Amino acid sequence: MLPARFAYAPEPGVSANVAALLPRGDPAFADLSELALAGSPSLAQAIARIDRARAVSDRAGAGRMPQVGATATVQGTRINPEQFSTNIPSSVSIDTERVSYGASLTAAWDPDLFGRLRAQERAAIARIDAAGADAAGVRLALLAEVAGAVIDWRTLAARETALEQDVVAAETLVTLADIRERSGIAPGFDRVRAEAAAEASRSRIAALPAERARLLGLLVTLTAQPAALVREALERPAPDAAAPAPPAAVPSDLLTGRPDVLAAAARLAASDADLYAVAAQRFPRLDLSAALGLLAFDIGGLFDSDAVTGSVGGSLLAPLLDFGRIEAEIDTAEADKRIAFQSYRRAVFTALGDAEAGYGLVEAADRALAIAERERASNDRSARLADVRYRAGLSDFLTVLDARRNADTSGERVAIARGQSQRARVILWQALGGDQIGGNQAHGRAITP
């Protein structure tokens, strides 16, 4: 039984769509996602698996049709006359060398009385659907990884901006402390502490390039493009966009939108058809065959009416005593079907769990962002008041420094929280099956890169 709604999902009246959860307004994401879909080796492999599944399906379908062949032969033979007898009259001559010429058409057909071949074809078609759903899943993961990397890159830029502002503010305090120290109204220790605060911000800035290098390498892998092209896309400015509200999806939508659920359902259907095909081996198998040809012992006689040959036949093969071979194959197919069914159940509950976690992450990340923004506003006010009181001689420098340090770190925390909020939406987008939710677009015969 599927739940009626997700625990953390918004009310059904919320107007939102799944596609808006991705940073589609970011030009870097638009460019890099297009490059990834066009050149990703992982997606190309998935598309190739669809082609392979189609070829297997075509082979299974062709197996139900008659097989027609043509042959042409020229055969020469030489015999030893002594093999017949040594008492052959001298008036009887034996031709010890002979050449025969032949041409024939042959046909063979299994009428598939009990549906064995039809079941094999159904299984092959279901595996096309599974391969298509797998390809949709690769596409989904690829876009989610690109979106996450782009968001992380923008978050690093926001953190760097906040930290640079921290350095400027800290350097202002250094200048102020230095002036007061030279005037003899403040100890040199105040200047040292202000310089330490500035260096702390600079050290955090120095750690950002390593994370940028990691993200650049990841995007090179995802897009299969050179680093210069990827970096050019990332350096394009992105407009500020408000975080969209999560859509009020219902659990049943996952069964028609999640590629892994669709793939598991297709494999379950394939295992059911495999079981039918194996069980059909217990019934008799009828094979029909026919041949029409020409046989002559010289080229000129090849088209005489006497050279026409033909045959029609049929065979019925039924298992009588196989010592349990077929039953063992049936037991194996039944076990495979149970495995496929449990895999389908696992996919369904994995989808439900991912969606619940995704909605919960969005709610928690939005709450954390709101708190971080309020904290930054409070710390900024506190820093301004501390500076005013210090200049008026009502507060010591340590109070100003602590207030400034809190204000500086809260700016970076806001940047991190905003990135986590955007990241949570990408996770929810992937958990809901991406833009496919509400419609089966992952069918193997409709997948495109």
What this model shows, in words?
- The chain is an alpha+beta fold and 449 residues long.
- The protein folds into 2 domains: 18-64 and 113-283 and 325-436, Outer membrane efflux proteins (OEP); 69-109 and 285-317, Single Sheet (Outer membrane efflux proteins (OEP)), CATH 2.20.200.10.
- It has 9 helices and 4 strands, in the order H-H-E-E-H-H-H-H-H-E-E-H-H.
- The chain has helices spanning 27-39, 41-62, 116-183, 188-223, 227-234, 254-257, 259-279, 325-391, 397-431; strands spanning 67-78, 97-109, 285-296, 308-317.
- Strands 1-2-3-4 form a 4-stranded antiparallel sheet, with no helix packed on it.
- Helix 3 (116-183) packs antiparallel against helix 7 (259-279) and helix 8 packs antiparallel against helix 9.
- The radius of gyration is 39 Å and the shape is elongated.
- The two termini are 35 Å apart.
- The model is unreliable at 437-449 (pLDDT under 50).
Can you give keywords for this protein?
Outer membrane efflux proteins (OEP); single chain; four-stranded antiparallel β-sheet; disordered C terminus; 4 strands; alpha+beta; elongated; 449 residues
